[in-house]
């Protein structure tokens, strides 16, 4: 989205959100519990009424997360007699939502239901957006939903179509700990909370300073981070120092399961899992069915006009932002390409994080920028949301550097 009023793009929404006094979470299940725990972590439940709505008659009338569960019929009876502003969150509840819209004689779904005093959110990324806006406009707090910290561009793998552009990077390196700490301190000098914070690479287990980095983040900022995650590709067994810090600071580890294409993972992943159990480290296996190919060498979107490029960027909707040397990049793929020297960075592709206002940071995090798109859009097919060019994950290349001289 292209800025038209930097720092004030969401003011109208913000004024409306300040009127909300009740949040209805549609579905008393795992998804609903996750939403509630986020609300609790943000410390805003004491200021709002939280209620679950569920069509399961066995759940109705009981407590879930120490909050009451009502039926959809009860919800509508309450809502008809209560003119105050409410927020409805219904993730993956299409049947329930169909019921909502039928009850209100609406044909099309909308974020703000016309004539009704409510917001309704059905997609995970949009729910995150509403929480960011709610925190800023009602409480003056800046919530970033996703942040990535890159420790190293070194990796044990050499994957075809690596989204970090490892095969193209001739100058793979570990980033100095003091530089990473400077960016972390800058981030939390402006941002009050981060929902998902990824300590990534390359392969972060190659990073010698990883225990010290985890310890610094854990001791100084852990209470400001909801999910602190370390991805690993399953080729390295972490040492004792790393295991102790992962456990001490409550990190969750994502083990990318590439056993179909990387034989050594068959040997190492069971060992890693055993160690995580012994050290009481939360983890999960992530086995992607397919990857995307950004086709940066063969994609030429230069024929697109500005409006088409804006639509391309908005539809892509890449969530993860990357702060490096005081610059907040609108797209981490773009930042990785630039690090590998296969993508140009122009002034409008990043935000001067130190000097931007909190409102501008919020809007940049939610997809606004100077041009409405970034330079890399001209050479990229986009993220999973729009990219139909799918490939088998983690297929290894024989040649380490494959870019032309």
Molecular structure report:
There is one protein chain. The chain is α/β, with parallel strands linked by helices. It has twelve helices and 16 strands. The chain has helices at residues 11-17, 30-42, 72-80, 94-103, 124-139, 177-190, 210-221, 240-248, 264-278, 306-316, 332-339, 358-365, and strands spanning 20-26, 49-53, 63-64, 67-70, 85-89, 118-121, 143-150, 193-200, 225-232, 252-256, 282-286, 291-292, 321-324, 327-329, 350-352, 390-391. The strands form three sheets. Strands 11-10-9-8-7-13-14-15 form an eight-stranded mixed sheet. A six-stranded mixed sheet has the order 3-4-2-1-5-6. Strand 10 (252-256), helix 9 (264-278) and strand 11 form a beta-alpha-beta unit. The chain starts with 10 loop residues before the first helix and ends in a 14-residue tail after the last strand. Mean pLDDT is 89; it is low at 106-117.
SSE ordering? HEHEEEHEHEHEHEHEHEHEEHEEHEHE
Number of distinct helices: 12
Specify the oligomeric state.
single chain
**Rg over C-alpha atoms, rounded to the nearest angstrom:** 22 Å
Low-confidence stretches: 106-117
User: How is the largest sheet built, in terms of strand order?
Assistant: 11-10-9-8-7-13-14-15
What can be said about this structure in brief?
The protein has 405 residues and is α/β, with parallel strands linked by helices.
């Amino acid at each position: 989205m292209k800025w038209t009023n930097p720092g004030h793009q969401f003011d109208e929404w913000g004024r409306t959100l300040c009127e909300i006094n009740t949040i209805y979470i549609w579905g008393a299940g795992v998804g609903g519990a996750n939403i509630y725990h986020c609300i609790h972590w943000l410390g805003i439940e004491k200021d709002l009424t939280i209620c679950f709505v569920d069509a399961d008659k066995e759940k109705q009338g009981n407590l879930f997360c120490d909050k009451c569960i009502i039926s959809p019929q009860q919800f509508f009876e309450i809502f008809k007699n209560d003119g105050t502003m409410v927020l409805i969150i219904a993730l993956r509840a299409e049947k329930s939502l169909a019921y909502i819209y039928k009850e209100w004689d609406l044909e099309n779904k909308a974020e703000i239901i016309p004539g009704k005093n409510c917001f309704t959110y059905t997609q995970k990324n949009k729910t995150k957006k509403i929480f960011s806006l709610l925190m800023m406009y009602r409480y003056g707090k800046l919530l970033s939903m996703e942040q990535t910290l890159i420790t190293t561009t070194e990796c044990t793998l050499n994957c075809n179509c690596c989204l970090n552009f490892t095969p193209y990077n001739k100058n793979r390196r570990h980033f100095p700990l003091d530089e990473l700490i400077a960016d972390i301190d800058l981030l939390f000098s402006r941002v009050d909370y981060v929902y998902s914070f990824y300590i990534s690479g390359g392969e972060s287990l190659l990073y010698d300073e990883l225990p010290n980095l985890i310890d610094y983040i854990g001791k100084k900022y852990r209470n400001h981070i909801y999910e602190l995650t370390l991805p690993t590709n399953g080729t390295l067994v972490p040492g004792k120092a790393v295991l102790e810090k992962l456990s001490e600071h409550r990190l969750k580890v994502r083990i990318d399961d590439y056993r179909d294409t990387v034989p050594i993972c068959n040997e190492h992943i069971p060992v890693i899992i055993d160690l995580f159990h012994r050290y009481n480290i939360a983890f999960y296996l992530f086995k992607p069915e397919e990857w995307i190919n950004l086709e940066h060498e063969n994609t030429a979107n230069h024929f697109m006009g500005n409006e088409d490029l804006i639509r391309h960027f908005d539809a892509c909707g890449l969530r993860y932002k990357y702060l490096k040397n005081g610059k907040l990049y609108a797209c981490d793929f773009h930042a990785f390409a630039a690090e590998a020297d296969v993508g140009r960075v122009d002034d409008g592709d990043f935000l001067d994080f130190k000097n931007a206002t909190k409102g501008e940071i919020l809007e940049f995090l939610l997809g606004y920028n100077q041009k409405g798109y970034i330079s890399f859009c001209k050479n990229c097919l986009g993220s999973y949301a729009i990219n139909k060019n799918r490939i088998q994950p983690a297929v290894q290349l024989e040649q380490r550097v494959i870019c032309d001289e």
